[in-house]
Specification:
Layout (H helix, E strand, L loop, with lengths): L16 E5 L3 H13 L3 E6 L2 H11 L3 E5 L7 H11 L5 E4 L17
Parallel strand pairs: 1-2, 1-3, 3-4
C-alpha cells in the first residue's frame, strides 16, 4: 500500500498520536493500519471505556478514536470522563455496523 505524506502536529512537527478504543480487535487493527498509512502513530489501544480512561492518562494522545458500544463502560460515558479531566482532549466517536447474515422466513400461516 502506498504511504501518504505524514500528518504532523503543528506545534512541534511530530506525528499525530492516536488512542484507538474499540472492543473489536479486528476494528482496532484496521484503524491502526489506516493511521500508520497516513504517517500517524498509535499511542495506545483499549478494548473498553474504563481502559480508555487509563490509557488516555498514560499516553496523552492527540486524538482518540472511540467506539460507542463497548463492555465495562460505553464510549460516550468514557469520552465525557476524559473531557472532564482533560478539557482539551480531542475525541472522535467511531462506530460500525456489521451486516447480518440472518435469513428471514417467508412462510405464510393459515388461520
Amino acid at each position: 500500500m502506498e504511504q501518504f505524506a505524514p500528518v504532523k502536529r503543528s506545534k512541534d512537527g511530530q506525528s499525530v498520536r492516536y488512542l484507538i478504543v474499540d472492543d473489536s480487535v479486528f476494528a482496532r487493527k484496521n484503524l491502526a493500519r489506516m493511521i500508520e498509512t497516513f504517517g500517524g502513530q498509535v499511542a495506545g489501544e483499549a478494548g473498553d471505556g474504563l481502559t480508555a480512561i487509563s490509557e488516555f492518562d498514560r499516553t496523552h494522545p492527540d486524538i482518540v478514536l472511540m467506539d460507542i458500544t463497548m463492555p465495562q463502560m460505553e464510549g460516550i460515558e468514557a469520552a465525557e470522563k476524559i473531557v472532564q479531566a482533560h478539557p482539551d482532549a480531542r475525541i472522535v466517536m467511531v462506530s460500525s455496523r456489521s451486516r447480518s447474515s440472518r435469513k428471514f422466513s417467508t412462510k405464510s400461516s393459515s388461520t
